[in-house]
Amino acid sequence: MKVLFLSQRVPFPPDRGDRITTYHFLRHFLEQGASIRIGALSEEARDAKSVEALRGMVDSVCAPSIHPLRQRLLSLRGLLTGAPLTQTYFHHPELARTVDAWVQEDPPDVVYVYSSSMAQYVAHHPQLFRFMQFAELDSDKWRQFAAVRRGPAAWIYRREFARLLEFERDVARSFAACAVVSEVEKKLFMEHIPDVTPLVLPNGVDVDHFQTAGDEARNPHTVIFTGVMNYEPNVKGVLWFADTCWPAIRQRVPDATFLIVGSHATEKILDLGRHEGIQVLGRVPEIPPYMDQAAVAVAPLKLARGVQNKVLEAMATALPVVASSQAAQGLGPVGSDTLVLADHEDDVVAAIVDLLEDPQRARRIGENAAAFVREHFRWENQYEPFDRLLAKKLSEPTDARRVTSTPTINEAGTRPGP
Hints:
Layout: E1 2-9, H1 17-31, E2 35-41, H2 47-55, E3 60-62, H3 68-75, H4 78-81, H5 85-89, H6 93-105, E4 110-114, E5 130-135, H7 138-147, H8 151-174, E6 177-180, H9 183-192, E7 199-200, E8 222-226, H10 232-252, E9 257-261, H11 267-271, E10 278-282, H12 288-291, E11 296-299, H13 309-316, E12 321-323, H14 325-328, E13 340-341, H15 345-357, H16 359-376, H17 379-395, H18 398-401
């Protein structure tokens, strides 16, 4: 099986949400003996080492470098052309030329695309079997951002919601199959694109990696948050928690410590390290040892979509998690003896203080959480629906796999002719 694998970021190492999913699906293809070409974009200097590692695993890798500030400026062209800014941000001429050359010289059996912004690279190849892993509709993120903004930013976000949703509709209707990450996302997807039914492929957890080593290093009064710390929902959630909830928690548990673990901390996040009881640790080699130092994990996100890896990973390491409804919505029904939901300041404070002061209850909830994740969110289980779909589609005659392409907005913001 020949696979063309397209992802926004280099799919290695599995250290943030999208990389976790893409790495595991890449590994799954490799375990099936697939011949793989990877197209992605390099955002960081360390991506060069990741690309070299991937070249030892797959047939070819094209991952040209982009510079976030430059891409943001270039994406403003979309205001003139009519294209979604997201699509323009993730466009790179070298990657586009390479993908076209790969398709022409040795057409793949399967095109796996992660995130709608990467669909532009194969939008004009309807003859291929194209699978679109939306995870969630990126357009709805911009709707949420617009709801909490005013002025020009709100206008730009509303425009991005509308233009990106139009593109996502085109992709969903023209690709052979598509997927989202949860039943909640499926419902939202079908509200906006009712004529397409997506497959549900939840994120998984590497349960062999994310497991507790025991309580020897555990501090009974430590709270932890993990995540990429320049991602706006993470930044806003942590700032809200630190400013609104943490003083009250410290008042009731004076020696409480809050660990913020994750790369790319913004200045506002770094400033939290000056507060009593807050440590901003940045990027760490491995997450599980820091989970084992904590008594409670917190996920106080107000803007959150899909299945949150930070929640799954904390649960897998047998930590009780206090999560907002937004952060937990992708998990489906979960009992209060497995996951603690709290949205408002008083409820968050009370939930965390209760767990810090009752370590036996905290450990009981943590153990239930670990069992829940191992039953429902092992990666081995998450591949099964995808494998069934792929086997069915690849067994069909080539013509039957094709979907008549609907007009798709290209990077320039125009609709290609016939």
